Amino acid sequence: MKKDVMHYVELSLYYVILFFILREWLVPVVELTSTGHLNLLLLFIVLAFVLNLFQAPIVVSWLVKFTYIAWFIVHVYSEEKLWSAAGLQFLQIDIKRNVEVLFAGQWEGVTDPFRSVLFFLLIWMLIYLIHHWLTVRMTIFYFFVLTVFFIATLDTFTSYNGAMAIVKVVLLGLIMTAFLYMKRLIVETGTSFAFYKYMRYILPITLAIGVVGMVAILLPKAAPQWPDPVPYIKSLSGTAGSGGAAISKVGLGEDDSRLGGSFEGDDTVVFYVHAPERQYWRVETKDLYTGKGWESTSDLYSLFEITDGNVMNSVGYNEQGDRKRADVFPAVVGKAYVLQPYGITNFSTEQLGITLQFNRITERLTTKLGSMDTPVDSYSIRYSTPEYSYTELKTPVTASELSTVDEHYLQLPAELPERVRQLAFDITQNHKTGYDKARAIEQYFKRNGFTYDTKDVAIPTEAQDYVDQFLFETKIGYCDNFSTSMVVMLRSIGIPARWVKGFANGTETGRFDEELRVFEIENNDAHSWVEAYIDGVGWMPFEPTIGFVNQADINFDLETTQSEELLLEQEKEQQELKEQQVEEQAVQQEKAKKQQSISIDWKWLVFALLALAGVGYLLFRNRRKLLVKMHVSRQRRQPANATTLQKSYKVLLKQLESVGLKRGSSETLQAFAARVDDYFGTNDMSKITDLHEKTIYSKDTTNFNFDEIKESWEYLINRTTG
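^ that's the sequence the OP posted. Answer follows.
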């Protein structure tokens, strides 16, 4: 009985040390990913250790762990009770949705609850491996080294400071290594356990490790003697900067001062958006063209804080239009900017303490917590898309009606080649209104041999202008080439214009409800376009890039004369094309939904059969180990006596045979036991065989300790299965 108590005390001590080491795994993960709920994750680890400590049957252990995971998912993501109808329905819907997403191969579309389940399973697997190393191998060296490497990597390449974490892990790991070394010595030598002798060796080791650790912490440290390797590693991967001919990855970058060059696609999803319609998403504008790219002017009064969520940029909104809602869910870490639909009026988030910072010049909205840029998990936007009257767009304004716009929207470098200005004049000289001139430049690229391409796109030399090179030499490029060229040509004929960055429509993947559609916005959807200031109307978007459609909503309310019919017809064609794209997308989604509803039954059936086949294969492949473990578990719960020894001895012989230690036909049990002990370096098999023969022939087992023999049997079983 005393031995059993010491066994539990010893194992509990191991688990306490391992708990604090595992905590150093979770803390940086929670901190870097804004996961939260650290205490609940740690509670799961404690629960797993307790189940292992008391050797709970596998069915009970699995049931308890899965119940806890289900409770966590419902509690955190729905705030319902697990056993309530709403809680169970939430679980059912989420499971079904993620299975469908996985079958469709859309791995990036899995929900946050499902990601949490996978994270729990990872922790579960890690604890199982630790338990195996602890009880069978009696060493955690590999886990110890892996933990130090993991924390050191995060400390080197992320913002996480892992200095103290590494110190804690090293001290705890060394203490744990000392404990397990003593345990191995006791088992391998067959020494009987004596508490006072055990502590006589362990206490000095523990004290020495603690003292050395404290001295190492308190002593002054020399500065690093080697240079930081991170910049060198980044330079090798191409992330520390790019040369003139480098191929970049598509995405919404910060630095646009050097445009040009090819790029590679990137289908990483950066936002999930629930919105009623397809639209462009503004992030910011830039106003200073340098001849090589774009920069932003700034002044002391360009930034101000918004605390009430009421937002309005210079594009305005439709006062008579319906208010619409869009919900945005960032899919990657670090996106503190806000996606702005045209006509934005309000921003809201459930994350406490968040305010908005608005840049008056770039019109960029940034989420802040105090003075720090802080991304939020989700936010909602209210907006009313501006509608432009075709009558107003086609009506020339008088000199007295001209609006005053900041001069920096007409800025051009002094070195701009004259032929760029001349081309803009030639394109627009027969048009009267600012809108007509802007439309003429917008349509120019579609009719004059320009090509949309992301490969083999030229980079201007120091003596070349970015726009001039594109307009007159290459005529090959992507959105940055087209949009920048249009802004420069508009400015050269006196129309204020600015360069806009953001994201195009994205890909519609389904419906959230009757009102909202689900869109996935990838890095591939990063886009740039043009906003021009039309006198009498205001700022208006234009889309010069080939293959993209102008997103402006125009109300065709003008009665035209015969001379205007051709242009009006072109305008209507553009609008109808936009509406047709939306309708076709809706039809495709409806067809996909019907096909999915028809085929969902057999998909579930195939999934169930594959899962059943996989489980069956794993059980068949590991049948011997599973049977042995079941016998070990059953034997632990039975009293140690001669009857149970006979059954256990037969199992041990079969297990030894499975690993190549088969008893010869003319070999005595004692000779076989000696061979096994020589193989494993123990005397356990001889002790078990001696008692086995005594129980058969003499029935005199008074001099044997059955508990000790039981431990020897379990040790040999574990050696063969390990």
